[in-house]
Amino acid sequence: MAAALRETQEELGLILSPSNGKIVFSEVGRIKNGVRFSDILDVWLFEYDGSVDLSKATTKEVAQFAWLDRAEIKALFDEKEFVDTLSYFFDTATLNSD
């Protein structure tokens, strides 16, 4: 969780509370197209009710950003604007809200 909080603050300028976060998806290592990866993918969901000023987002690690709701993310995913690995978002991270 510490890394998710730190990266969110460093890259987006948002300060999230650890008490408002929970892990919704985790995957250690995977095989894609016959190639084994030893990466770790943790997806955290944080409740946030503050103002959003994305002008503080860094340009070193963030090429493009937007504040989207679930429907907007789904529309972009369906239009192939996101990598297919984001499908976990609709399987687990949405908490059955379609």
Number of strands: 2
The average pLDDT value, as a whole number, equals 79
Poorly predicted ranges (pLDDT <50, ≥5 residues)? Answer: none
> What's the helical proportion of residues?
25-40%
Outline type: globular
Measured between the Cα atoms of the first and last residue, the distance is 26 Å
Kindly name the structural category: alpha+beta
Biggest sheet, strands in spatial order?
Answer: 1-2
User: What fraction of residues sit in β-strands?
Assistant: 15-25%
Query: How many alpha or pi helices?
Result: 3
Q: Round the Cα radius of gyration to an integer and report it.
A: 15 Å
Described by strand count, sense and barrel closure, the largest sheet is:
2 strands, antiparallel
Along the chain, the helix and strand elements come as HEEHH
Give a description of the structure.
This protein is α+β, with helices and mostly antiparallel strands. The two termini are 26 Å apart. Strand 1 and strand 2 form a beta hairpin. The chain is built from three helices and two strands. A two-stranded antiparallel sheet has the order 1-2. 0% of the residues are buried. The radius of gyration is 15 Å and the shape is globular. The protein has a domain at 2-67. The mean pLDDT is 79.
